[in-house]
Amino acid sequence: MRPPRVLTIAGSDSGGGAGIQADLKAMLANGVHGMSVLTAITAQNSLGVQGAWELPAEQVRAQFRSVVDDIGVDAVKTGMLASESMVRVVAELLRTLPDGVPVVVDPVSVSKHGDPLLAADAMEAVRSDIVPLATVLTPNLTELGPVSGVEQRTVEDRELAAKELLHAGAAWVLVKGGHDEGDTSVDVLHGPGVRRAYSAARADNRHTHGTGCTLASTIASYVARGYDVPAAVGAAKEYVTGAIEAGFALGDGIGPVDHAW
Ligand code: PLP
């Protein structure tokens, strides 16, 4: 039987740990057919990002049309969008999706090594053009302030930021607490009349490259399989927690999460 079809619109990580490589592995592991539209390629390894190149808009549009017009999609995930002009191209493409196709947006801005994956002036375009199209938006605590426009000083500011993002048109907002201190990692899902926390014991493992990409792709996979958003987030949190626990060393730096755990 044909598996559900999930498309990632994101950047390539040559080291295979994050980006579209992580997305496609997570999709395979979670029972869907993965497809990709590349927005950028990076020269990247366990030590960081050594180079990044955005693809021409024409190539991005062509990839998207090839996939959507023939194969079709049951869910979309977006990741590295690189620049303001790429954000606008991707928004324009997402608006051509058939009604009801869910879109999971990971508002990626910097890598764990601090390398920029989105131009400094582009987050405003993400807020105005992409957030209103998001079925689920998955900011981490670094991205939450810039994507919402709500400065983050206290824990209460997270709630305000989530409300602002819902007001801006995201159907659901998952605020990821993985960058917090403490023994547990708590993600909080905000949605229509819903506020639900998902906790997991924090794995004592520094090999966490690709965590955000993996979580968002897995949410998209479960939504494509027919789970509602709270259930998809629960299944994805469980999967990513296992993948982090099994993360392994590669090269001299931060290794990837393991999709074959
Ligand atoms: N490289 C690419 C192409 C990505 O899309 C991402 C995250 O979305 C990263 C690197 C960063 O991954 P991490 O922060 O997990 O190291």
| CATH-defined fold name | UDP-N-acetylmuramoyl-L-alanine:D-glutamate ligase
Q: Which stretches are poorly predicted, pLDDT < 50 over at least 5 residues?
A: none
Order of the strands making up the biggest sheet: 3-2-1-4-5-6-7-8-9
The assigned structural class equals alpha/beta
Q: Provide the succession of SSEs.
A: EHEEHEHEHEHHEEEHH
Helix coverage percent: 25-40%
Radius of gyration: 17 Å
| Strand residue content | 15-25%
- Looking at this structure, what is the CATH superfamily? Ribokinase
Q: What's the number of structural domains? A: 1
Can you name the CATH architecture? 3-Layer(aba) Sandwich
Overall strand count: 9
Ligand roster: pyridoxal-5'-phosphate
Please write the CATH class name: Alpha Beta
Q: Kindly report the average pLDDT value.
A: 97
Shape: globular
State the helix count: 8
Largest sheet: 9 strands, mixed
Terminal residue distance: 25 Å
